[in-house]
Amino acid sequence: MKPVKRHSFLSSIAIAAVALLLSACETVQTTQGGAVGVDRQQRMMISAQELDQAANKQYSELLAEEKQKGNLNRTPAQVERVRTISNRLIAQTGVFRPDARNWRWEVNVLTSSEVNAWCMPGGKIAVYTGLIEKLNVTDDELAAVIGHEIAHALREHARERASEQKVAGSFISIGSALLGVGGLGQQGAEFAYMGLIGLPNSRSHETEADRIGVELAARAGYDPRAAVTLWQKMGKVSSNSTPAFLSTHPSGTARISDLTVYSDRVMPLYQQAKK
Questions:
Q1: Is 82 domain-assigned?
Q2: Residue 212 falls within a domain, yes or no?
């Protein structure tokens, strides 16, 4: 068999194998669009239950470790502030997905110099004191951060990313095996995935979380425009100068521009909530 025909034949097999993998993915709409209109369909290959169980285990282990170190919920006033803001945001999650009202939400504050906050699948929230203190955040700005992280959980971005990586890993392995690509070739394929497929999806996740986050904040009675001032503060303390093309986050200018547009869009919701 001539090499050209062999590669053509094996390429056809690889394409068929990838098509089979993609057909195994479930196409879902994790949230309703809301006023900000986030309505992108998502492909999932990993079950929500599987990821939620893993998140619950990891969260419990982390809290136990931080408690042992004396870093868990050390300052009652900070904990009360974070939980009050979080609970107001959580009360609005039903706008995007009604089942979120029944999640077992948890909110904790970790003493750390790190400027960070996150929300695991199923509603497991952590806010770091470094974010509160280094940025000197207002309640509106803190609501912007927490709303953004809640949005990631509502959209099940972690599940989507895990599914993407599972499909991509299978695709790369199948292609390498069938086409006789060695280790260096496989590494090149992985880089191509990260550059052309993986990271752009991460940036879209961040944009979706920004938009849903400002709507959650507005509906909860927090000024959505605070997301803009928050990101401006983030820019001042951040040492990350990675170009937007290779970053999982939108650039500061692009992000602020988008946040400005969408915070203005949800201002009527904020004004109504403040009445």
A1: yes
A2: yes
CB contact burial 116-136 (16+ within 10 A = b; e otherwise): ebbbbbbbbbbbbbbbbeebe
Joined tokens for residue 214:
């400002």
Domain containing residue 224? 44-273
Q: What positions carry a catalytic annotation?
A: 149
Q: What is the rounded CA–CA span in Å between residue 274 and residue 264? A: 16
Residue 113 CB-density burial (10 A; 0-12 exposed, 13-18 middle, 19+ buried) = exposed
Global pTM reads 0.81
The DSSP code for 153 is: H
Angstrom CA distances, 136 to 83, 113, 131, 175, stand at: 17, 13, 8, 50
Q: Are 145 and 127 in contact (CB under 8 A)?
A: yes
User: Minimal CA–CA distance to 214: which of 202, 231, 226?
Assistant: 226
Identify the bridge partners of residue 44 per DSSP, sorted by sequence position. Answer: 26
- Does residue 4 sit within a domain? no
Token pair of 41 as six digits:
């369909």
Residue 25 lies in a domain: no
User: Which residues in the chain land under pLDDT 50?
Assistant: 1-7, 9-11, 13-17, 20, 171-198, 200, 241-246
**Which tens digit of pLDDT belongs to each residue from 79-121?**
999 999 999 999 999 999 999 999 999 999 999 998 889 999 9
* Helix, strand, coil abundance in the chain, percent, nearest 5: 65, 10, 25
Cα–Cα nearest to 146, from 72, 61, 75, 220: 220
Whose structure tokens read 């199923």?
A: 122
Structural domains in the chain (count):
1
49 exposed, middle or buried (CB, 10 Å; 0-12, 13-18, 19+)? Answer: exposed
Residue percentage of the chain with pLDDT more than 90: 58
